[in-house]
Amino acid sequence: GDSVTQMEGPVTLSEEAFLTINCTYTATGYPSLFWYVQYPGEGLQLLLKATKADDKGSNKGFEATYRKETTSFHLEKGSVQVSDSAVYFCALSSGNTGKLIFGQGTTLQVKP
Amino acid sequence: DAGVIQSPRHEVTEMGQEVTLRCKPISGHNSLFWYRQTMMRGLELLIYFNNNVPIDDSGMPEDRFSAKMPNASFSTLKIQPSEPRDSAVYFCASSFMGQGSYFGPGTRLTVT
User: Fold this and answer.
1) Distance of alpha carbon A77 from alpha carbon B67, whole angstroms
2) What per-residue confidence (pLDDT) applies to B2?
3) B52-84 burial, b for 16+ CB within 10 Å, e for fewer?
């Protein structure tokens, strides 16, 4: 069945460092891909999405490109801030019900 | 739009009691999802509805759990009787045509 694999955390970076969180997927067909962020004590927020190959999703300085050839959707940010500390989830969705398959989540800690 | 609304935000109850969690999805969304999040098991999909009809309840842990969606603007998740291992954060999310799910703030359930 469909699945999502994320890099293990926690990821610890200094402020203004470059961030990459790897995400790869297995799916039949052509899924939509998502990144969600969960700040402490809150629900998941949709960060960005891409619905077809080579699409780039972007929001709040974060980017991810849908790479069909490598079945990947890596999350990047050029300069992280302390306020970016959170758990990041990669997810895919097939069909139009919106059912999401999540990765296990990656904790990001940014230190001043 | 107010986003997905969940109530209560916190619930503390004794083992054996009935617990009802409530969700109001975003107006116009056609799919609704109930998730449970714990440190041990991460984020689990319990059940989802499409156009108010339950589509997949394979994630519901036991017969003690039940969910209903009597109309497009309201859903409940009921646990009867509750047990300490049901303690978790329960999230409701809604989606329109698979374009990404929007999560509520969650209900933190503690069963003593």
Assistant:
1) 39
2) 80
3) beeeeeeebeeeebebebeebbebebebeebee
What would the two tokens of residue A47 be? 């960060």
CA distance B86 to chain A (A): 18
Instruction: Closest CB to A34: pick one of B56, B91, B100.
Output: B100
- For A24-50, the pLDDT digits (tens) are 999 988 899 999 999 998 999 999 999
Taking alpha carbons only, the member of B33, B6, B10 closest to residue B87 is B10
Strand residues in chain B grouped as ranges (E): 5-7, 10-13, 19-24, 31-38, 42-50, 53-56, 65-71, 74-79, 88-95, 102-103, 107-111
Contact A49 B102 (CB under 8 A): no
**Residue pair B84/A23 in contact by the 8 Å Cβ criterion:** no
- pLDDT computed for residue B99 by the predictor: 81
